[in-house]
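Please check this today:
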Amino acid sequence: MSEKSYGQELYEKLSYTSKNAWEVLKEEEKPFVFDLAEKYKHFLNCAKTEREAVEYFIERAKEKGYKEFNNNIQELKPGDKVYFINNNKSILLAHIGKKPLKEGFNLIGSHIDSPRLDLKPKPLYESNELALLKTHYYGGIKKYHWVNVPLSIHGVIVKSDGSKVKITIGEDENDPVFYITDLLVHLSSDQLQKKASEAIPAENLNVLIGSMPFNDEKVKEKVKLNVLKILNEKYGITEEDLISADIEVVPAAKARDVGLDRSLIGAYGQDDRACSFLAAEAIFSIDEIPEKAAIVYLVDKEEIGSVGISSAEASFFDISVAKLMKALGEYENSLDLALCFENSAAISGDVAAALDPTYEGAYDKLNSTLIGHGVTIEKYTGVRGKYSGSEATAEYVGKIRNFLNSNNICWQTGLLGKVDQGGGGTIAMFIARKMINVIDSGVPVLSMHSTFEITSKVDVYMTYKFYSQFLRKFE
């Protein structure tokens, strides 16, 4: 074997190339990689909506000894574990550390909403003796993804007396599923001439829900009435109750292993329940009292710009941390909260766009993440000229790099495609507004925002490893 030249040795020393995480993974780590993937797939099947994700995390929190923070909790001490709930659509988990909270905390923020179809307030109608539901798409979708696939219905209906009715139809093997029709190819000559964004108009995303008529000749809309009758008998609801409901239509498919080697995970909603799940599992893994408080903040509405009461833009986070400080005897005025934020560090946990070999032209290959190369860090996000994004400082990126390398975590860096190809944002900008240093970091994903997204099990593991170490000991 020939010796390396001086130039080859110098190039290896000075250049940077990410590594395939499978090749650097220790043999004793492999069982945990696959075990974590099974837990993650179970979560994806249980939590296809933000409400279901919150319910899941509450149960896991209780298992790990967390208690819901309420006005009955007057005092907290190091080692205490509490959670806050915001309108059943976002959750904050906090593990109190040894150091005073005013000296800062380590935070991972992520979002639990995903692109989907929402029912309109008055969704049910009958046409040509079929019953259908009208929808309004939520977040960035390719509308043609949602036709001709089995769908399920999830949500909650609040009746006029304030009682709640939870609905999940289409997930059990014995459940019916739902469906959005498409025009048959034999009659599609006009449709096929349209741009992909126009081939399926938004108003055509109508969910087929029934076809059997109610047996009464005097009723005009017999199929609609039969659907209402079924809903009333099973859930005790009327059509008016649908006005006060959060009903979401999502793919009925379960999370599955992908590939002969079972190295990949395919499922709906991995953007961004991947990072949410891993952040929660990271804080749940802390058995000891951390030096600094560890906080995980999982929010709603990121996919539509983080607006609304359950979003990262809302004041829920500030109020919750202020309550923690008060319970610790550290809060006197708003300056205490501001200094606490200034002393803190954060990760915005969100997925990254993995380089797709079939569509390489949309990416800058030099600045793209690769499936299987570990957790991603992104210095900045945004659209085109970095609009609506957040950018980590060089100093903070340097600390993060050193931390990753010191903890033997396989990592890579990348951006969301070519500059003028598109772009996107995360909740990092809302964390940065509080004067908290933050960087985007998460799992690379193929086919992001589709009905069946792809991740690598080893990337999921490396992201978990980073998150858990960050919450425990980042300084």
Observations:
- Residues 124 and 133 are 5 Å apart (CA to CA).
- The chain has two domains: 16-114+268-473, 116-251.
- The two ends are 45 Å apart (CA to CA).
- The mean pLDDT is 96.
